[in-house]
Amino acid sequence: MAQKVILVDDLDHSEGDDVARREFPLLNRTFAIDLSDANQQRLSEALAFIEEVLASSREVKQASRSKKAADPSPRLQGYTLTDVREWAREQGLEVPARGKVADEVLEKFIAAHPDASSTHSAPDEQPGEEAENGTKPNTDT
Asked: pLDDT per residue over 125-137, tens digit each?
């Protein structure tokens, strides 16, 4: 003995012989829903209205987030922001656990660690000449 499957309309929860699975396209996707003939008619009218609206509309693109540079602090050479944060805390300076480190803190770190500067030599120094502190500028790249 075969059992009869009773479909229920997904919108108004009615049962009936006219309830069927209906597929419809929307925004380049296909959806399925169980609907009676009356609700299928309502859906068809709504989709026609949406098509009319879309034909008169223009798409708004979401602003994309800018991609972060691989090195968030290109002024540092051979040190990480974690190194800067640890040093700053040792100096009694307040720094955030994450995110941007204030330029003032970076400048103080570079002043305390001259080798951290990504500018290897001052503009008037020539490679091979000694800097004022008696060390040769780093010319390795």
From this structure: 444 444 444 444 4
Neighbours of 95 (CB within 10 A): 20
Cα–Cα–Cα angle for 22, 23, 26, rounded to 5 degrees: 135
What's the chain's length in residues? 141
- Residue 11 inside a domain? The answer is no
Tokens encoding 24: 């419809």
* Shared-domain flag, residues 78 and 108: yes
Q: Which of 40, 3, 2, 1 shows the shortest CA–CA distance to 19?
A: 40
> What are the residues whose beta carbons fall under 8 Å from the beta carbon of 61, sequence distance 6 or more?
none
* 101-112 pLDDT per residue, tens: 898 998 899 899
Amino acid at 123: P
Contacts of 122 by beta carbon, 8 Å cutoff, 6+ apart: 131, 137
Structural domain boundaries enclosing 27: 20-54
Give the ranges where the chain is alpha helix by DSSP (H).
37-55, 81-90, 103-112
Give the type of residue at 41: Q
Q: Is the pLDDT of residue 32 over 80?
A: yes
